[in-house]
Amino acid sequence: MNNPADQYTFDLEPGRDERDRAIEQVTAHAKVGFIEAGREALERCCFTMETFTTDEIWALIPDSSYTHEPRAMAAIMKFAQANNWAYPLDQYRPSSRPKAHRGPKRVWRSRVYAIRDALQPSYESQEPEPI
What we know:
Blueprint: H1 12-28, H2 34-48, E1 51-52, H3 54-60, H4 73-82, E2 86-94, E3 104-110, H5 116-119
Antiparallel strand pairs: 1-3, 2-3
Helix pairs in contact: 2-3, 2-4
């Protein structure tokens, strides 16, 4: 006799492959310059905030680099994780972006925030040196 639970067996590998293909596809269709601007915004978030969501990254991306394909943000977060800049927590915050309709956004923790002074000069605004 067949076990009804067998129909719900989930194979993780094909799911990961599909996710990765989808991320590659939306990244390829994102506006030119979006990924670079997103990575710069990600870096700024990682160096200035202990925890953040993609809302904070979106806020730092210049309007000229916005993309019609917001799912391309997944590529930026995948980059953050692969390069040990940040990792996802099991926490969520309501989105502050009107387009996201207050939907839950995953919270990420920076891996470089605590050691930022040793890695990068401060992002705090600094007065220019007098000439």
